[in-house]
């Protein structure tokens, strides 16, 4: 059996052809494929607008900037996530406040968040960043109601869940990133994600003003939209427009304005081509992930050594398949000896040395910490073969039965 990683990209000939076509074209950076990818992705998740950026971390950072996070602002998020979900607030000088997870779903526990909010005067907190961990969608309808009661914004971190959804109170599907409940949502196109673009990220929103902000923030804070220009036509043209007919009193073609302090967080055209090609078969990949998850669940549901697992949940996008097990370290090492490269998702962010300096310590997030002591992510990607999955299941079972 060849080595089996926990995640793996699937690059097809159509992907290669799409990238090669761009490499042969006149555009490598911000060409027409970027906008095509944005429009197609917005349609895929059901949002009005999408902004492609360099990576998921850049997406989070731009969201925090666009929402006006200032030094000292307090924002709530989960400790079971990749560090970027919290770091984006620190980039703006804000304060990250962690709240514990629901031990059954591994998602940010809305009841714990409510207790946190109710324990402080209104205005203490500015926002919430729920994370669709492993691909399970957060019930954002409930979080929206809570956020509105306390005057908070929401950034939905959906890096694990393109194509995922939850059922709202009316029994309707609410797809991750559709903009109906969160001001902004973000996705990642890292190679192990559902859609691979090498690197890359996407922001989705239904808010036109936030959309316009993001377009300039990702490109140094510069705009070429003449309807937004602040300097006069006279200044822009280097002369006095009154010397010309009224019909010619327009901004010259070269003119642009830097109106905010932005960043170079742009996606390239050839990355967009790869992402667009992968998006075309995203549904099939999602269905295959759910098939793999179902087999894992059925194989382990009655095993004595399982404390919990990512069960078959409606709307789950299954970026990861997580088990909670006894003797996690022993299993991890045994799997590696058999060339099965499982992974751990995640070390609680509040216990990273950087965040410990702000007073976070062991015992602060008991559910997250217990989860971390038992969790292990099994290989999960659409090209995982039935034979490979059978070998993984057999190896896990053999370790404990031995």
Summed up:
The chain is 37% helix and 14% strand. The protein is an alpha/beta fold and 402 residues long.
Q: Give the neighbour order of strands across the main sheet.
A: 2-10-9-6-5-3-4
- Secondary-structure element sequence? EHHEHEHEHEHEEEEEHEHEHHEEHEHHEH
CATH superfamily of the largest domain: Type I PLP-dependent aspartate aminotransferase-like (Major domain)
Specify the CATH architecture of the largest domain: 3-Layer(aba) Sandwich
CATH fold node name of the largest domain? Aspartate Aminotransferase, domain 2
Q: What structural class do you assign from the helix and strand content?
A: alpha/beta
Which overall shape is indicated by the principal axes computed on the Cα atoms?
A: globular
Mean pLDDT, nearest integer? 96
Number of domains: 3
For the report, how would you describe the main beta sheet? 7 strands, mixed
Q: What is the C-level CATH assignment of the largest domain?
A: Alpha Beta
Number of strands: 16
The first-to-last residue Cα distance is 21 Å
Q: What radius of gyration results from the CA coordinates?
A: 23 Å
Number of contiguous helices? 14
């Amino acid at each position: 059996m060849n080595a089996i990683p926990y995640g793996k990209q699937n690059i097809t000939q159509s992907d290669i052809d799409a990238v090669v076509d761009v490499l042969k074209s006149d555009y490598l950076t911000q060409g027409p494929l970027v906008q095509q990818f944005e429009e197609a992705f917005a349609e895929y998740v059901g949002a009005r607008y999408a902004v492609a950026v360099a990576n998921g971390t850049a997406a989070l950072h731009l969201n925090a900037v666009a929402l006006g996070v200032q030094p000292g602002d307090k924002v709530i998020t989960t400790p079971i996530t990749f560090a970027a979900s919290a770091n984006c607030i620190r980039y703006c000088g804000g304060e990250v406040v962690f709240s514990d997870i629901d031990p059954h779903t591994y998602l940010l526990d809305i009841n714990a968040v409510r207790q946190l909010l109710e324990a402080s005067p209104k205005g203490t907190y500015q926002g919430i960043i729920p994370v669709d961990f492993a691909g399970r969608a957060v019930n954002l309808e409930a979080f929206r109601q809570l956020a509105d009661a306390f005057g908070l914004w929401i950034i939905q971190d959906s890096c694990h869940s393109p194509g995922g959804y939850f059922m709202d109170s009316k029994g309707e599907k609410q797809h991750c990133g559709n903009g109906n409940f969160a001001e902004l949502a973000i996705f990642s196109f890292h190679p192990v994600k559902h859609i691979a673009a090498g690197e890359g990220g996407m922001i989705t929103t239904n808010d036109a003003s936030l959309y316009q902000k993001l377009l300039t923030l990702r490109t140094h804070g510069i705009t070429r939209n003449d309807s937004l220009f602040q300097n006069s036509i006279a200044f822009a043209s280097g002369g006095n427009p009154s010397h010309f007919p009224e019909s010619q009193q327009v901004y010259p073609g070269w003119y642009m304005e830097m109106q905010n302090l932005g960043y170079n967080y742009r996606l390239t055209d050839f990355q967009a081509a790869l992402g667009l090609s992968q998006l075309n078969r995203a549904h099939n990949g999602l269905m295959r992930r759910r098939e793999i998850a179902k087999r894992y669940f059925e194989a382990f549901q009655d095993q004595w050594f399982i404390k919990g697992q990512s069960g078959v949940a409606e709307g789950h996008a299954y970026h990861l398949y997580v088990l909670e097990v006894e003797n996690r370290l022993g299993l991890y090492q045994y799997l590696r000896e058999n060339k099965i490269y499982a992974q751990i998702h995640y070390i609680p962010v509040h216990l990273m040395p950087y965040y410990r300096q702000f007073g976070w310590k062991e015992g602060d997030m008991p559910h997250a910490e217990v989860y971390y002591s038992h969790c292990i992510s099994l290989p999960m990607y659409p090209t995982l073969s039935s034979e490979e999955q059978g070998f993984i299941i057999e190896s896990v079972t053999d370790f404990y039965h031995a």
